[in-house]
From TrEMBL:
Highest taxon of the lineage: Bacteria
UniProt name for this protein: Iron-sulfur cluster carrier protein
Organism field: Chroococcidiopsis cubana SAG 39.79
Portion of the full sequence shown: 87 to 348 of 353
Molecular function in Gene Ontology: 4 iron, 4 sulfur cluster binding; ATP binding; ATP hydrolysis activity; ATP-dependent FeS chaperone activity; metal ion binding
Annotated function: Binds and transfers iron-sulfur (Fe-S) clusters to target apoproteins. Can hydrolyze ATP.
Subunit text: Homodimer.
Annotated family: In the C-terminal section; belongs to the Mrp/NBP35 ATP-binding proteins family. In the N-terminal section; belongs to the MIP18 family.
Keyword Flavoprotein found: no
Keywords: ATP-binding, Hydrolase, Iron, Iron-sulfur, Metal-binding, Nucleotide-binding
Residues annotated as binding ATP: G26, K27, G28, G29, V30, G31, K32, S33
């Protein structure tokens, strides 16, 4: 990845947005959106101004995870023309393809349609001043992901995986995609790393060492290992991400640690 890291400092061209980071995964279901939401909350709790763009066109779940339900996006007039007004939850500015009214959603997210929507979502949103804009990408390495990454002024990417070997081989592809488009990978987050047993012991449900092995192989940091915890799931389903509950739970500690590392 050494050549990839040369492009580390890229100019972020969204006015007033300091850093734009993509949150991605090699495959679906590894907890990418959950991680993006809780990381956004952890950054916000650290006193930073945070925006979250849900660009997961195949499964835009972020509004539900933040308790925003079916709220419609407002369009406002500004001196620079019409702009989408992001919604707000837990102090985070949120925009999602899931917030588009049904009639505005394309049946197929093909290149030109994606290009138009993503460009609008990035450049025609009244984000205001942000320290971080996190972009939740669709899983995988297809056309949709490449279009979004190329259309967005992304400064770096974070890749979420589980420790399972099958997930790991997909992550390699994902990291190579970012290198090909010149986006540096800031690190890997391993989710569902272990379950905490009744006696406090770690139970590696999906195997262990995958994230560490990959981080070493690709010379990129392992930013954190998030335990498997039913409260994470409940938090997402009820629209109250676990990181919003100020507690010393191991899950919250890991999100705070990752927020401090990026
Ligand atoms: P992806 O965005 O990768 O498709 P999601 O974030 O939607 O994945 O997560 C998939 C499912 O796994 C959801 O039901 C979510 O609540 C659950 N989940 C994610 N991370 C954890 C975790 N650390 N502990 C328990 N459940 C989790």
């Amino acid at each position: 990845l050494s050549w990839c890291k040369k492009s580390y400092i890229q100019l972020c061209t969204i006015p007033n947005v300091k850093t734009t980071l993509a949150v991605s995964s090699g495959k679906g279901g590894v907890g990418k959106s959950t991680t993006a939401v809780n990381l956004a909350v952890a950054l916000q709790l650290a006193g930073l101004k945070v925006g979250l763009l849900d660009a997961d066109v195949y499964g835009p779940n972020i509004p539900q995870m933040l308790g925003l339900g079916q709220t419609d996006v407002q369009v406002i007039d500004t001196p620079n023309g019409q702009r989408f007004l992001p919604l707000e939850a837990f102090g985070i500015k949120v925009m999602s393809v899931g917030l588009l009214a049904e009639r505005d959603r394309p049946l197929a997210w093909r290149g030109p349609v994606l290009h138009k929507i993503i460009t609008q979502f990035i450049h025609e949103v009244e984000w205001g001043e942000l320290d971080y804009l996190l972009i939740d990408l669709p899983p995988g390495t297809g056309d949709a992901q490449i279009t979004i990454v190329q259309e967005s002024p992304v400064c770096g990417a974070i890749v979420v995986t589980t420790p399972q070997q099958i997930a790991i081989s997909d992550v390699r592809r994902s990291i190579h995609m970012f290198c090909q488009v010149g986006v540096p990978v800031l690190g890997i987050i391993e989710n569902m790393s272990y379950l905490i047993g009744t006696h406090g012991e770690s139970i590696p449900i999906f195997g262990s060492g995958g994230g560490q092995q990959l981080a070493a192989e690709l010379n990129t940091p392992l930013l954190g290992q998030i335990p498997l915890d039913p409260d994470v799931c409940t938090g997402s389903d009820t629209g109250k991400p676990i990181a919003t509950a100020i507690s010393n739970s191991p899950v919250n500690q890991v999100f705070l640690q990752i927020a401090g590392a990026i």
